[in-house]
Design goal:
The chain is α+β, with helices and mostly antiparallel strands. It has a domain at 62-108 and 205-312: Beta-lactamase, CATH 3.40.710. Helices cover 40% and strands 13% of the residues. The strands form two sheets. The protein has a five-stranded antiparallel beta sheet with strand order 2-1-7-6-5, sandwiched between helices. It has a two-stranded antiparallel ribbon with strand order 3-4. β6 (267-274) and β7 (281-287) form a beta hairpin. The longest helix is centred in the N-terminal third of the chain and has 30 residues, at 2-31.
Length: 313
């Protein structure tokens, strides 16, 4: 009888200890921070308010203090003092630097990024699918940029194929076909979201500034307009554009640059995110009334100076 009592006592003690361990473990686990379900390479969904670029009216802020003095000689050497706009912002601290950053420029093909975002917003809302088919019309065909027009009216492609062609090769026909899928309000929504004038509704074509357009890529980086998955998808696509000889040429080849370029007979533009290992930063450079060869050289040298400065900081 004494042996049975001892066994029951040991069993009861063991069960109590097991229960105590379970309760303590559960409480500890509940207090541990949970890991993010999804890991993004190019997007950093907004977790808290960041320092906005409007916080300071000074053209230099925090650690970009003496960078402007390194860039200005390059601009003067190209006689481009009034023909270039630059906006740079650190994605972690909000530190920024601007040179003619509020000046209006012709956006040209830069506007293909907001078109892609507006279409992807419809995907976010389950109104369309990336696999849906678009049929080209005669009005879509545009020989100005790209080769999709060669397929002619009646050619079919998916929504995602059209976005890829538009972003990677800056194809005007793909842009026209995608824009046709959108209401004016849907296009306006992206510009309203980032707080810049809608060029399609403006009386003047020179309405987009480097400072303003950088907010388009900021919205993608922070996933404030599209879902993180679709923001990541579009940024990933923009790392492999046909033209990689502007801001991309100013950084080491192993560094990813998600960007969109624009070209006109009198100037170039290139805006995006440079994924520097220390901290990704936004960079938007626009030029006008400048020979293309001189504009290209200036954009590359400026990008190179900025990357070196950030690396040595």
């Amino acid at each position: 009888m004494k042996k049975v009592f001892s066994l029951l006592f040991i069993l009861s003690l063991s069960l109590n200890l097991a229960l105590l361990y379970f309760l303590v473990y559960q409480k500890t686990a509940a207090n541990q921070p949970t890991a993010e379900k999804t890991s993004y390479r190019l997007t950093k969904p907004l977790q808290k308010n960041i320092i906005d670029s409007n916080i300071s009216e000074q053209s230099t802020f925090l650690h970009y203090g003496d960078l402007k003095a390194q860039i200005e000689p390059e601009i003067k050497r190209s006689n481009a003092t009034d023909n270039i706009g630059i906006f740079l912002q650190d994605n972690q601290t909000g530190a920024w630097l601007g040179i003619n950053e509020r000046k209006g420029f012709l956006p040209a093909s830069l506007l293909k990024v907001p078109i892609a975002m507006a279409v992807l917003k419809k995907v976010d809302r389950d109104e369309i699918k990336l696999t849906d088919t678009i049929e080209l019309t005669e009005e879509d065909l545009d020989k100005g940029a790209g080769t999709l027009y060669q397929k002619g009216s009646g050619a079919k492609l998916t929504v995602w194929e059209a976005i890829k062609i538009m972003i990677l090769t800056s194809d005007n026909t793909a842009k026209n076909a995608l824009k046709r899928q959108l209401e004016d309000a849907e296009i306006n929504a992206i510009f309203t979201h980032v707080g810049v004038p809608n060029p399609y509704q403006s009386q003047t074509v020179e309405v987009v500034s480097p400072r303003g357009f950088s907010r388009i890529f900021k919205a993608l980086y922070l996933a404030t307009f599209l879902s993180p998955d679709l923001s990541e998808k579009l940024l990933d696509l923009a790392t492999d554009t046909q033209v990689e000889n502007l801001i991309s040429a100013g950084v080491p080849s192993e560094i990813q640059v998600s960007h969109k370029y624009g070209e006109r007979p009198d100037g170039l533009a290139d805006c995006g995110i440079i994924y520097h290992p220390k901290s990704p930063y936004l960079l938007c450079i626009m030029t006008h009334n400048l020979e293309l060869s001189k504009a290209k050289e200036l954009i590359i040298s400026t990008s190179k100076i900025i990357y070196r400065f950030v690396s040595l900081k």
